[in-house]
Design brief:
heterodimer; A: four-stranded antiparallel sheet; globular; B: 11 helices
Chain lengths: 237, 263
């Protein structure tokens, strides 16, 4: 089977404390995958490890069937990330920020790409504004533009709609679903918004104390637990 | 009211005492000032009317060249800190950019910032004080290049420490070169230091550079063996600080520090 992410015995400890414990996971080549877990379950550590921001203590990660350790820069070219906790330089305009990242990802027709993405995500009128002057909702949409600049085959999203109003959240969710269908990419989402996960994701990964407690399609997980909503599935713990 | 003031005092005391660099800075600034001005005054008494103009020319040249070191160090550190302050580092490190490319980018921006910052200063020094830095000729490039190498080395070293230990180490970026200033013999010759300190000061590459500068202006003479020694030391310093920066990046990845900086 072609996989987007293949993880074998992945562990990560910080100062002797195990945060990820022998994680094994194989995600199909495309689809939207939700990661759920309590605070401290290891969601952020897992995402950061997949991006090479954290070196694993042990285990192997393969992304698009290539070893992350050996092919890091090749893989990083094909993935991207967005988080409301990680910002862009505030003193630069939105356009300057986006063109900078477009260069780093070696995007062809940079200006055209930026303009089309900004128009799709309704941030064209923000291009000349300093990033620092944007509201948190505007920042989230601009960050998403940055995350889509290289049309990633694997997109990692940390709380993608936090700080967005209801209408914009809905717009972003629909946009991401459309993006995934158009480009057949894999999207990995962590969110505390269970309705969002249920609405967007095909698969669900439940992390508990650094271990994968469950991984399956949402439909199968609900069926297995005889529940109708993800919330019930989690509260059952 | 007293409670509120006490609360503030405790808070500021915790901030100052909770960080070693901040704590050290409270003590070393007065000491550095006293040492620097003490040595400078010693030297000033030795200047007589026959060499006062060349001495002033030496001091102005030293001011400009010391600023080369300061600007190149600060230009590098501040560019890197901008990424930390804007909580942008994880975004940068998940792109296909390689660690050595980041170092090269920092060195280049520091160079441009130094040139940009010094051009008006040199112009004004030339216009108002009839001071001709370019009379140092080809050796000006040599001094400039070597002080830039030292500035880059210190800048990389400080940036790595801030990345590893957090923003309390930022104070070092402003302060570190002033710690070495009194022993670098920038504005006074090595022999104006007390004998016990001369041996210590002579190991600083900055001391070697400024001694050669004085020798060139006063005696039109340079020790070429010393110049080779200076360039070898400075290239080694830059290599060592680059290795240190790369090593800290690997430590930061192991400890997950970069992720926490975004939160």
């Amino acid at each position: 089977m072609k996989t987007s992410i293949k993880i074998r015995n992945l562990s990560k400890s910080f100062d002797g404390k195990k945060i990820l414990k022998e994680i094994n996971l194989e995600l199909p080549e495309n689809g939207i995958f939700g990661i759920l877990g309590k605070n401290g379950a290891g969601k952020t550590t897992l995402l950061a490890t997949l991006m090479g921001l954290i070196t694993p203590t042990s285990g192997d990660i393969k992304i698009f069937n290539k070893c992350l350790k050996k092919n890091k820069f090749d893989i990083l070219n094909q993935i991207n990330f967005q988080s409301p906790y990680i910002e862009l330089p505030k003193k630069m305009s939105v356009y300057q920020n986006l063109i900078f990242y477009a260069r780093l990802y070696n995007v062809k027709d940079r200006v055209k790409k930026i303009k089309s993405l900004c128009s799709e995500l309704l941030v064209s009128d923000l291009l000349d504004l300093n990033y620092g002057k944007l509201s948190s909702g505007q920042k989230t949409r601009v960050n998403l533009c940055k995350a889509l600049l290289n049309t990633p085959k694997l997109l990692l999203l940390d709380e993608p709609t936090s700080s967005l109003d209801i209408q914009t959240s809905e717009f972003v969710r629909k946009y991401l679903i459309k993006f995934q269908k158009n480009y057949q990419s894999a999207i990995l989402i962590t969110s505390h918004n269970l309705e969002e996960i249920q609405y967007m994701c095909d698969y669900l990964i439940i992390l508990e104390a650094g271990k994968v407690k469950d991984f399956d399609t949402i439909r199968n997980l609900l069926k297995k637990g005889k529940k109708s909503r993800i919330k019930e599935l989690l509260l059952d713990d | 009211m007293i409670n509120r003031i006490i609360a503030l005092l405790i808070r500021y005391q915790n901030i100052a005492l909770g960080s070693t660099p901040r704590l050290i800075s409270i003590f070393y600034w007065p000491t550095v000032q006293i040492l620097f001005w003490g040595f400078f005054t010693n030297y000033f008494y030795q200047i007589n009317e026959f060499n006062i103009w060349s001495s002033l020319n030496v001091i102005l040249s030293a001011v400009v060249l010391w600023d080369v070191l300061f600007r190149s160090q600060l230009g590098l550190s501040m560019s890197f800190f901008e990424e930390l302050w804007s909580r942008n580092l994880p975004n940068l490190f998940i792109t296909p950019i390689k660690d050595h490319e980041i170092i090269l980018g920092l060195l280049m921006i520091s160079f441009f910032r130094t040139i940009l910052g010094l051009t008006p200063a040199i112009f004004f020094a030339n216009y108002f004080f009839n001071f001709h830095l370019f009379e140092l000729g080809f050796y000006l490039i040599f001094f400039f290049f070597n002080l830039t190498l030292i500035g880059w080395s210190i800048g990389l070293f400080v940036s790595a420490l801030v990345l590893r230990y957090g923003q309390s180490f930022e104070e070092l970026a402003w302060a570190i070169i002033f710690i070495v200033l009194p022993f670098s013999c920038v504005y006074y010759p090595l022999d104006s230091l007390p004998e016990v300190m001369q041996t210590f000061a002579s190991i600083f590459p900055t001391t070697m550079i400024f001694e050669e500068m004085r020798s060139l202006i006063f005696n039109s003479h340079l020790d070429y063996l010393n110049l080779i020694k200076i360039i070898c030391i400075n290239i080694s310093l830059l290599l060592l600080s680059s290795i240190f920066f790369l090593y800290i990046l690997s430590v930061v990845r192991k400890k997950g520090i970069m992720v926490n900086q975004g939160e």
